[in-house]
Write a structure and sequence with these properties.
single chain, 971 residues, Immunoglobulin-like, eight-stranded antiparallel beta sheet, 26% strand, globular
């Protein structure tokens, strides 16, 4: 939620698979001058490894790997003896782990990311996947059991990789040059590559905003991908490392001969800083993926699919399915950085209600704090007793409150300063240390700060106590917002060690005003006066739209770091010899130093990428203890593998620009792969000033995404949806649709928590054999049945969208129920006036809905249900709804209701123990033939109507219990 950390130059590394003569790190100019001659450097081949001592078992095999020749010591010291373990984990998952035999390399502890144990039965002969290997030089490849001669899913054989080096991606960055090589496994550098089919479809490998879109660039056009894994605090850059690390990808292959597709997936379970490259050499028929890591081990999981959703679910089965969301989390959330006092926040809540724009959760940013200190409230602007009254009033109206928690806590500035969380942390020994045992002290919003050590033995009790005390102070939170947890620091290294703490005061935003024009306004008149922030909510925001607003990609030019020092005599924690492409520069820039020390002896270099995950787990467990009868709700910025078990995510500090509204779609689709489905963007944009048209379109778009929050930065114009009449109208319409669909949202999220299936889907997930869909990232599907086509360009009154299914699927408009006359295999132009977002229903849908969307989710759930059925051409439907109280931690009483239509009869089957008081009041059937009678549970009824033009049968005035089996027939 932050702005403006200064970018610094990051110079390029040249990671070769061959050893270079030891040399000092060159300057920037020397690096650039050396680029043209880099291929003529003296090198020796890395030897690879030889396999021996093979032992077969019921579940797989184990063996030893021994360095096959003289060490090359490319970026560290070659480890002579390795161990390999292969486990057929299930029918669809294969585990391959290569580690140092002495177990001195960092391995992710099971306490942080839990993995399944060895299987109880053998899948060695039945698994979809087969592990193949060459003993010397050692290489392995993964094939499908039923397609042994097809291109392997993963193939490290040098004979399968490009035989000659490819040129660098650009002249100033030779670090992406590639040469085929055997396995390299050193104490500070690991390298392995796999051949892939030419220009295959790759998705994932984040967190990233990729200029190529949701489908990653494989380099067929000479660009390729360099994905760096090093979490950092940065305002949503394009094609650079961001807040989280997720080294998992889904590959989707299309067979042009059979016109059929299949998907597979690969996870490299590693927290190490890394570069992951996707590239295709010139004049080659092979693409490849290459991993370059600065530590750890090679811990691979392979998933057989065969559909994209299957791969995602199989990944979830390994790292853990997403947490169960409380039902209120699907409501509309509102926040900004810059609310000056609790009265202003109270007024915003009142203005939302006066405008009849549903508000489920009000948030506050760091404005809440006293001197920007965690677990406090400002005694002047946010007095505890007034905050408590505010939260109680929200609760009385079935609304909720979420405050922010920053990762760093302030140190006390002198002997008279009282700040209990810091003092208690010292007593409990929960702060990260310097190597000499002193406190590691950085700098964040409150001034000098310390950072929680999530490995500490006392961290859970300390963190729970801090949150419990804060709640008792009057901050009656329903959930927690975790920010700055990469972790972020505004200085480099332990800048506060030995400093005069009182010399550094909290940062101040006083007077900060963003006056730049919104992106698409030619003129911009903004009155900064009391009325803009005051109780009336009035403001002057006038502008003239150019209707020629450009949405070209925002690019950041980054010069990479220079050559490492080659053959180093020992471990370099502060500056590893291979310099990954951390776009902000040195690994310690604006974060913790890599030599910061954690309990148990862990170095920050090895555990950096897991800081956010460990905070999320600790916070989730704390909330479970504080509120044992309620599900936790968390939204966090920095994430890692398995974070979805503990938290949701927002996409960070985006911009109020049309491009970033579009980019949010690929971000949300990525996090479905990562098993963090509760994800969304800062609606209307966080940084810069938004405008009416952009906010109008964005409020509509976000209503059909999992996490729905409007949030903007300090000093920007207010963007609460009531500020513009057109935005207010668009918001009311979109939120009404969202709240109608709550039972559907809740069902697809239950599927995610139970089976790992993604709630939000790229179109090709449902239509995997349609190549025209493989790069589509301007549309998406909510579950299997809802297609969303937003407007993403300014001034537009129409939008082009593709309707999958090749003409065999019937798509109907959500609002009118009319059938779409869609172009087969191409775009269809749809009307999209301002305030309207196109949403369509797929046939074979049975959607349980709330008939009367209300102001809050509680009130909405108090009303009756409706059922919307859209028949296939054959007149059939099958659907499911999952119901429970939406609050209690699982396992809890629940009910599953199934809907089946055959031969003009809808059969409703109910099973489970959850009591459903609300009745099914209306059933709408689309695609039905004109009936002469309608029979409900054996008795003819007359409360029905039929509209021939859209083949719509509406049966109303019902009172069907969803706790019992029922039927409705039309003949």
């Amino acid at each position: 939620m932050r702005f403006g950390l200064l970018e610094v130059l990051a110079l390029a590394s040249v990671p070769w698979c061959k050893a270079q003569h030891a040399q000092a790190s060159p300057s920037v100019s020397e690096t650039l001058e050396a680029t043209s001659s880099v291929y003529s450097m003296n090198v020796t081949e890395c030897p690879g490894y030889s396999l021996s001592a093979l032992t077969e078992s019921e579940v797989g095999l184990t063996a030893q790997l021994t360095l096959a020749g003289p060490a090359c010591n490319a970026f560290g010291k070659d480890i002579v003896n390795l161990s390999i373990e292969v486990v057929y984990q299930s029918l669809n998952t294969l585990h391959v782990k290569i580690s140092d035999t002495l177990n001195q390399q960092f391995t992710i502890p099971e306490s942080i990311v839990t993995r399944p144990s060895a299987p109880d039965e053998s899948y060695k002969a039945t698994s979809d996947l087969v592990f193949n290997y060459d003993p010397s030089p050692f290489a392995f490849w993964i094939t499908r059991r039923l397609e042994p001669d097809a291109i392997p899913l993963f193939d490290t054989r040098t004979s399968s990789l490009p035989p000659t080096p490819i040129p660098p991606l650009n002249a100033s960055d030779p670090s992406t040059a590639f040469d085929a090589f055997p396995l390299v496994f050193e104490d500070q550098y690991l390298q392995v590559a796999s051949a892939l089919p030419y220009d295959t479809n790759i998705y994932g490998l984040g967190e990233v905003i990729a200029s190529s879109g949701f489908r990653r660039d494989t380099g067929v056009n000479g660009v390729g991908t360099v994905q760096t894994n090093w979490n950092r605090d940065i305002e949503d850059p394009i094609d650079q490392n961001m807040y989280g690390t997720h080294p998992i990808y889904v590959e989707h292959r299309f067979n042009e001969t059979t016109n059929k597709s299949s998907s597979s997936g690969v996870l490299l379970l590693s927290a190490a800083g890394a570069d992951i490259l996707l590239q295709t050499p010139p004049n080659s028929n092979v693409s490849f993926i290459e991993y370059r890591m600065i530590g750890g081990i090679l811990d691979f999981y392979f998933f057989s699919g065969p559909t994209p959703a299957d791969v995602i679910a199989q990944y979830g089965a390994i790292i853990g399915y997403p947490m169960w969301q409380p039902i209120w989390g699907f409501g509309f959330h509102l926040c900004r950085w810059g609310y000056s006092n609790i009265s202003e926040v109270t007024d915003v809540v009142s203005q939302m209600r006066a405008a009849n724009i549903p508000l489920e959760v009000q948030w506050t940013d760091i404005d809440l704090y006293h001197a920007y200190r965690d677990f406090t409230t400002d005694p002047v602007s946010f007095p505890p007793e007034e905050v408590q009254l505010f939260v109680e009033n929200l609760a009385s109206n079935y609304q909720h409150y979420i405050p922010i928690v920053d990762a760093a806590l302030a140190v006390t500035v002198n002997s008279t300063d009282v700040y209990n969380p810091y003092t208690r942390g010292v007593e409990e020994d929960v702060w990260i240390k310097n190597p000499d045992g002193s406190l590691y002290v950085g700098e964040v919003w409150p001034g000098y700060t310390v950072f929680p050590d999530w490995f500490s033995e006392n961290i859970q009790s300390f963190w729970t106590e801090a949150l419990k005390n804060w709640s008792a102070l009057g901050v009656g939170f329903s959930g927690i917002w975790l920010d700055m947890n990469e972790a972020s620091s505004f200085c480099n290294n332990s800048c506060g060690s030995g400093a005069n703490y009182s010399a550094l005061t909290p940062m101040s935003m006083v007077g900060r005003v963003i006056t730049e024009y919104p992106e698409c306004l030619l003129t911009f008149v903004l009155s900064y006066n009391a009325t803009i922030w005051g109780p009336s909510g009035n403001m002057t925001i006038n502008g003239t739209s150019t209707n020629s607003c450009t949405t070209n990609a925002m690019t950041t030019t980054v010069t990479k770091r220079g050559l490492g020092s080659g053959q180093e005599p020992g471990i370099s924690i502060n500056s590893p010899p291979y310099a990954i492409h951390n776009a902000i520069g040195a690994l310690s820039t604006n974060t913790l130093a890599t030599n910061a020390t954690h309990y148990g002896g862990y170095a920050e270099l090895d555990v950096h990428n897991m800081f956010g995950l460990m905070e999320e787990k600790t916070t989730n467990l704390a909330l479970q203890e504080i509120f044992p009868d309620k599900r936790p709700f968390l939204i966090s910025r920095s994430t890692f593998v398995s974070a979805g078990k503990w938290t949701g995510h927002w996409l960070g500090d985006n911009y109020s620009k049309w491009q970033y509204m579009y980019l949010s779609i690929q971000g949300m689709l990525q996090f479905q792969i990562y098993q963090i489905p509760m994800v969304g963007a800062d609606t209307c944009g966080f940084l810069d000033n938004t405008d009416e048209e952009l906010c109008n379109r964005w409020m509509q778009l976000s209503a059909f995404t999992p996490f729905y929050r409007n949030h903007n930065t300090y000093g920007a114009i207010p963007q609460e949806p009531y500020r513009w009449p057109s935005v207010a109208n668009a918001s009311r319409t979109a939120i009404a649709a969202r709240y109608s669909l709550l039972p559907y949202w809740y069902t697809i999220f239950a599927n995610a928590s139970l089976t790992g299936l993604p709630p939000m889907k790229a179109l090709f997930y449902e239509f995997p054999d349609e190549p025209e869909l493989f790069a589509v990232d301007r549309q998406w599907m909510v579950g299997k049945h809802i297609l969303v086509t937003p407007v993403l360009t300014p001034g537009a009154t129409t939008v082009d969208g593709i309707f999958p299914g090749g003409g065999s699927v019937v798509w109907r408009d959500w609002y009118t129920h009319a059938v779409v006359n869609a172009t087969i295999g191409g775009n269809t132009t749809l009307d999209a006036p301002l305030g309207h977002i196109n949403v369509h229903i797929r046939d074979n849908s049975a959607l349980l809905l709330h008939q009367q969307p209300a102001y809050t989710i509680h009130e909405t759930r108090e009303g009756p249900y409706a059922l919307l059925v859209s028949l296939t051409g054959a007149g059939t439907v099958f659907g499911i709804a999952y119901l429970d109280d939406g609050i209690s931690p699982p396992p809890t009483s629940n009910r599953t209701v199934t809907f089946l239509v055959v031969d003009g009869t809808l059969s409703i089957k109910s099973g489970g123990t959850y009591d459903v008081e609300q009745k099914l009041s209306t059933v709408t059937v689309l695609g039905a033939k004109q009936p002469s009678s309608v029979v409900v549970n054996g008795e003819e009824v007359h409360g029905w109507a039929y509209t021939a033009s859209i083949e719509e049968l509406v049966v109303s005035d019902l009172a069907i219990s969803l706790e019992e089996d029922s039927s409705i027939s039309w003949k």
